[in-house]
Amino acid sequence: MARLTPAVVRTLDILELFLADDRPLSAPDVGRLTGFPRTSVHELLSTLVAREYLQKDEAANTYRLGVRLLQLGNAYSARFDMLKSANDVAREMAHQTGETVSVALLEGADAFYLAKVEGRDNLRLPSSIGQRIPANVTGLGKTLLAYRSPQAVAALFPDPEHLPRMTENSIGTLSELERELESVRRGGVAFEREESTPGVRCAAAPVRDASGAVVAAISTSVPAARWEQYPEQHWVDLVQQGAARFSALLGYALS
User: What's the burial of 34, exposed, middle or buried (CB within 10 Å: 0-12/13-18/19+)?
Assistant: First the structure.
C-alpha cells in the first residue's frame, strides 16, 4: 500500500467531522474531536476556508461546509447522470444496428470504458466496462485526445517514438498520432482500423456536455468484412447521430 500523506489525512479527517455533524464547529471543537495540535488545526482550517471547502462565521468564530464541496458533489452526481445516458444511448444504438457500441472517458493516456453493449456478433474485443486501453490505439481514445491541446497530448506520451501498440496497425509515434488527431478535428469522427483488435474496425464521435466541452466519446465496432459492405459515410452518420443524442441528454444544444 502506498504511504499516506499525514497532512492530507488530517485535512480529510477534519472535513469528515462536518459530514458527520451538520452543526457548526469551532476550532477548539475540531481540536477536541480529532486530537490534533492546536497550531495544526488552525492552519488546516485556514487553508480549507481559503480554498472554500469550509466557510467561517466570523461573529460566532465557527466553521461549516463551504461551496466547493457542493461543486464537487455536483460533479460526482453528473458522472452518474452520464453513466445512465451512456447506457441508454449505447443500448439504443446496438439495438438499431446490431453492432457493438462503447462509451469511454479519457483517463490520462488511456480510454476508460464507461459503458459497452455487445452487438449480434459478440466481438472478442480487448475492452470491457471499467477497463483502460491505450488511447492512441482506439477510435474512442483518438476522439478524446483530439480535443485536448497538442501540449497536453504530448505530455501524456513521454516517449514520442514509442507509443503503446496492440497490433501491427497501431499508431506508434506521436507525430503520426498528431496527424491523425488533426484529421479527427476536421471531420468530427475518428476511425480505428484494426489497431487494437485484428479484424475489427471502429468509428467514434465526441460527446459534449451543456458547456460544449467534449466529455466522452461513443463508438461502434464492426467486423472488417461487414464494414466494407457499406460506404464509410454510413458508419460516420451512425456514430455522429448517436453522439448527438447522447450530447442532447447531457444538455448540449446545437447553435
Answer: middle
Give the pLDDT confidence score for residue 128 in this predicted structure: 76
Residue 112, pLDDT score: 93
- Buried b / exposed e over 214-246, threshold 16 CB at 10 Å, is bbbbbbbbbbeeebeeeeeeebbebbbebbbbb
The long-range contacts involving 152-158, CB below 8 angstroms and separated by at least 24 positions, are 153/177, 153/178, 153/181, 156/108, 156/109, 157/109
What's the confidence (pLDDT) of residue 19? 83
Strand partners, 220: 101, 203
Residue 170 neighbours by CB distance under 10 Å:
18
114-163 pLDDT, tens per residue? Answer: 999 988 876 677 667 888 999 999 999 999 999 999 999 999 999 999 99
Question: So what's the pLDDT on residue 67?
Answer: 87
Domain 73-249 maps to which CATH number in 2.40.128.630, 3.30.450.40, 3.40.190.10, 3.40.50.620? 3.30.450.40
CA distance 253 to 249: 10
Query: Residue 209, Cβ neighbours under 10 Å: how many?
Result: 17
Residues in the chain with pLDDT < 50?
none
The CA distance from 217 to 208, in Å, is 9
Any idea of the CA torsion for 214, 174, 136, 84, to the nearest 10 degrees? -20
Under DSSP, is residue 229 helix (H, G, I), strand (E, B) or coil? coil
Question: Mutual orientation of helices 232-249 and 67-97 as an angle, nearest 10°?
Answer: 140
Of the candidates 224, 229, 171, 161, which has an alpha carbon nearest to the alpha carbon of residue 198? 224
Which residues in the chain are classed under CATH 3.30.450.40?
A: 73-249
